[in-house]
Specification:
The chain has eleven helices and ten strands. It has 269 residues and is α/β, with parallel strands linked by helices. The strands form two sheets. The chain has an eight-stranded parallel beta sheet with strand order 3-4-5-6-7-8-9-10. A two-stranded antiparallel sheet has the order 1-2. Helix 2 packs across helix 3.
């Protein structure tokens, strides 16, 4: 596994996203068995970075992830756990309550990374960082970050935070390059901020199918592995694919170690 190291922490190039675990906008207990199986196999395969949010299945995702972590008896120090505060909870006092709720559902004492899930123009960003900075001071979170922030908001967040912003989590893939084109990726790379690419495999890529298939065939890999390897080839970029299939989970994790040549990257670019 390759890693990104900055601001005193080590983040795997490939983590495990948990959107749809336990439900979507609300809990779906009929999916609990499948969700628990997906999380258990992810830990068995070797994932150590898990990304969740209070809004995922209205907190039920965090409950299931916490249950599997306890059952697995994995050393907490080996895990890098991320959660997110929802946009309706960005007032300072609500940030504190949201984090406490996530910690309670996960059954842990601290989060490695806590993100603003989506910006909310109705709440001053300075108000949100009052709560976030207090969580840092109290040891409830180790690092702060944001998600779905454009360049202007990211710069403002960076100016308001008492500690370095660790990441901006945004959609990014071989076909979704808007945050590459709008200056966010370049700014992050120049200012020691990770880009966490979510939905790296969500959309189909008809323009890229032939190139990815050719590269995959030559390497005895899958097209999805090539797509993840391309993301991992970008400096200061990590990604959080999600799969319930143990084979696909392993493929995604192993893609972090695939080093593309300059010509292979140029072909995809």
């Amino acid at each position: 596994m390759r890693y990104e190291e900055l601001h005193g922490c080590t983040v795997p190039k490939v983590g495990f996203g948990t959107w749809s675990i336990g439900g979507r906008s609300g809990p779906d207990h009929s999916r609990d068995a499948a969700s628990l199986a997906a999380l258990r196999s992810a830990i068995e395969v070797g994932y150590t970075h898990f990304d969740t949010a209070e809004s995922y299945a209205d907190g039920h995702c965090e409950e299931l992830l916490g249950r599997v972590i306890r059952e697995s008896r994995v050393d907490r120090g080996r895990l890098f756990l991320t959660s997110k505060v929802s946009p309706e909870n960005l007032a300072a006092d609500k940030v504190l309550r949201s984090c406490e709720g996530s910690l309670r559902r996960l059954g842990i004492e601290y989060l490695d990374l806590y993100l603003i899930h989506w910006p909310n123009p109705e709440v001053e960003l300075s108000e949100t960082f009052k709560g976030l900075d207090r969580l840092l001071q109290n040891g409830k979170v180790k690092h702060l970050g944001v998600s779905n922030f454009d360049l202007g908001l990211l710069k403002r967040a960076r100016s308001l935070s008492e500690t370095p912003i660790l990441t901006n989590q945004v959609p990014m893939s071989v076909v979704e390059r808007s945050y590459m084109k709008n200056g966010v990726l370049e700014y992050c790379q120049a200012n020691e901020i990770l880009v966490t690419a979510y939905s790296p495999l969500k959309r189909r890529w008809p323009r890229f199918e032939r190139a990815l298939a050719e590269l995959a065939r030559a390497r005895s890999l899958t097209a999805h592995q090539i797509a993840i390897a391309w993301l991992c080839s970008q400096p200061r970029v990590v990604t959080i694919p999600m799969s319930s299939d143990p084979k696909h989970q392993r493929d995604n994790l192993e893609a972090a170690d695939v080093v593309l040549s300059v010509s292979e990257k140029q072909l995809i670019d």
